[in-house]
Amino acid sequence: MYSQHLYCWLLLAFLYFMLSPCTASAGKVSAIVVFGDSTVDPGNNNYIPTVIKSNFPPYGRDFDGGIATGRFSNGRLVTDFISEAFGLPSSVPAYLDPSCHIDQLSKGVSFASGGAGLDDLTSQATSAISLRHQLELFKTYKEKLKVAKGETLANDIITEALYYFSIGNNDIGINYFALPVRRAQFTPAQYAAYLVGRAHAAVRDVVPHARSCSPAFCWWGACLPREP
Question: Which residues pair with 94 in a beta bridge?
Fold first, then answer.
């Protein structure tokens, strides 16, 4: 019953964002810009000091060349498929990957980090890139884009991009149910409301730049591989 109440509140939050005006858009998409956790991290955690990594088998065994890129998946991520569906590259690169140049990142970029959460405490516990820091990296990315493409073209890319958020499961599975701090501060309903507030603030931070965005809540256990 305890966890059911929390999941009900998160379901309501999901419906709130999916029905919000920022999800409706049509037309050409210039790039896909991704924020989140392991569900959409294409390898940023390879470049930060955290134990939450996936650059080893069995991860990546169905990716091109059977390479473990740092994606928490046997192959491509949902954001990779979305990118390809919009006529963009078939995989979204990690922002921290030093081999990726700005021309690649101008068509798609992911700031996501495995273990991250809406709650900063979640990211601290996992040594992940917090959502707050991901948004700071996004600001740096925009400045780099202006230098490389010119302000007019850079602004067009930013405005016409699709923004995708996939985050929140670690706040539940790692933070609220495994650590004592937030349980002592919040009831399940209060913590869900707190997460909704953090999600709303993050989306509003991006929406002034965006024509379209797609927030998503992904449930705990989505990135745990098992051998057949």
Answer: 110
